[in-house]
Specification:
- The chain is α/β, with parallel strands linked by helices.
- It contains 25 helices and seven strands.
- It has helices at 2-6, 17-26, 65-74, 81-99, 114-126, 146-156, 167-173, 177-181, 190-200, 213-217, 221-234, 238-251, 256-266, 270-278, 297-300, 310-337, 349-357, 360-363, 371-378, 383-386, 397-400, 406-412, 415-419, 426-437, 444-460; strands at residues 46-50, 57-61, 106-109, 132-138, 159-165, 206-208, 341-343.
- β4 (132-138), α6 (146-156) and β5 (159-165) form a beta-alpha-beta unit.
- α3 crosses α17.
- The radius of gyration is 23 Å and the shape is globular.
- It starts with a helix and ends with a helix.
Length: 461
């Protein structure tokens, strides 16, 4: 962890402004970058080898998503949809059976959604005893999925534990977040994730999760929404796009959505287009003085040229960056904070390769994502227990910033603290903060990365 390196004698704690820009845009700092200029993360699927004599290093890839995509496309799945469901069940049962091997108490996270319910259903079918399942609940109905998890657990017959947390429990976690993540990380669902891991560790030492279902099988609603936006854009003749972009940009002072369309129309490649779609701030110059940039997967995803459909391209980009550096990082850091080991059976290499061999309509048709995973789950759990709108996994941070968290946020966003590094534009951020406090606008998504950086920096310096 980066906190270990910080303690090395002579360590230079020079913050990288280009990494702050990535944090503001993406809510995380993707590999190989870190918050520090001279510290780098290993990319997913790589090891580094040092020569004993001169300590020169070489990064070696032992697993590469580009190669997996290429191999899978050369050997596409030729069976029916039902045959594909059966094959996925076989592969997932094999993965789960291996990951259930443990000499310490083992359980699983259960949200009541498709991914975790599938993993738990198969664990229950493979185990000799009841699977221990864990859910975190909130008294605010809008954020509470515990009731759904309880219904799935009851049907499957698991040994289920619910943890209902109070606002006070959640707020007590917030000051600890810089230590949990060791560098700034800014997904608001990190709060319930840390709580879930902390509470699960009281009973078990290993927990299986359903992470990666959305990336493998096209589950995110943004995939469908992005395709819709892309189709609307393609109706505008290329020769008129610059003019349309300028017009949308001018109107953007009245409507943020129009401003985002202006940025989308400027994009020259699909990677750039998707980056705009998934970034909170398309133009971070509003709040950041430094506009230094790093090359990321969006600048170098040349293998996307071999993928014809926008959905394939979005999944490939998410598999290469969003999944490892955001989703898995969020859970792994939270779990390790409590000495809980998490395992991700959907990320078995054979399952990843199988997912890339499937026809796209096996994964997603229109608004219906994760078709194959849902069909597998329906073999074990009644459809009516699962088929409902997803509430997400978060907490009411927007409201807390106006109430319980206001003193904490006000201090971090004070003009003097914002000026300390010379990276931020205090007047713009203070304006954003004031707009949020009125209650008429929710600016918590934009503010949270700034708050997480400020909390991390002040905690260290």
């Amino acid at each position: 962890e980066i906190s270990t390196i910080e303690n090395f004698p002579g360590f230079k704690n020079e913050i990288d402004p280009a990494s702050i820009k990535l944090l503001i845009q993406r809510k995380f700092i993707p590999s190989p970058y870190t918050i520090y200029k001279q510290v780098f993360k290993l990319r997913p699927g790589t090891v580094v080898r040092f020569k004993q004599k001169n300590l020169q290093s070489e990064e070696i890839a032992f697993w590469d998503i580009k190669q997996i995509i290429s191999e899978a496309r050369r050997d596409p799945f030729k069976g029916s949809f039902n045959e594909a469901v059966s094959e996925l069940e076989r592969l997932l049962k094999h993965s789960i059976s291996e990951q259930m091997l443990s000499d310490v108490p083992l359980g699983a996270f259960l949200s009541g959604g498709v991914d975790s319910s599938t993993v738990v259903a198969l664990m229950q079918s493979l185990g000799k005893s009841k699977t221990r399942t864990y859910t975190i609940g909130f008294n605010e109905k809008k954020y509470n999925e515990a009731e759904f998890a309880k219904e799935v657990s009851k049907y499957l017959g698991t040994e289920h534990t619910e943890f209902y947390v109070t606002e006070k429990d959640a707020l007590n976690i917030v000051p600890k977040l810089p230590s949990v993540y060791t560098e700034p990380f800014a997904d608001k669902s990190q709060i319930p994730t840390v709580l879930l891991c902390e509470l699960t560790k009281k009973n078990v030492t290993v927990a299986l999760s359903g992470d990666a279902g959305d990336e493998l099988f096209g589950g995110y609603t943004r995939y469908f929404e992005t395709q819709q936006v892309l189709e609307r854009m393609e109706r505008i003749p290329k020769g008129l796009r610059n003019s349309a972009s300028f017009a949308y940009g001018a109107l953007g002072i009245f409507d943020k959505k129009l401003k985002s369309y202006s940025s989308l129309l400027k994009s020259k490649t699909f990677s750039e287009f998707y980056l705009y779609r998934t970034s909170k701030w398309q133009d971070s110059s509003e709040i950041l003085f430094s506009q230094d940039s790093h090359r990321t997967i969006f600048d170098s995803a040349d293998y996307l040229a071999s993928l014809e459909h926008p959905l394939e391209k979005m999944i490939a980009l998410d598999m290469a960056e969003y999944l490892p550096d955001y989703i898995l990082c969020k859970v792994d850091r939270a779990a390790m904070w409590s000495s809980l080991e998490t395992r991700v059976p959907l990320l078995d290499p054979q399952i990843i390769k199988f997912s890339w061999s499937l026809p796209l309509h096996f994964k997603r048709e229109g608004k219906n994502g994760k078709r194959i995973l849902k069909e597998l789950l329906y073999r074990h759990v009644p459809k009516e227990l699962i088929d409902r709108p997803k509430r997400g996994f978060s907490v009411p941070v927007a409201e807390w910033l106006r109430t319980s968290l206001r003193p904490w946020a006000e201090d971090l966003l004070s003009e003097s603290n914002l000026k300390a590094d010379g990276f931020f534009n205090p007047s713009e951020i203070r304006s954003l903060w004031s707009a949020h406090l009125t209650g008429r606008h929710d600016r918590s998504e934009a503010l949270w990365p700034i708050l997480m950086y400020q909390a991390w920096r002040i905690g260290r310096y």
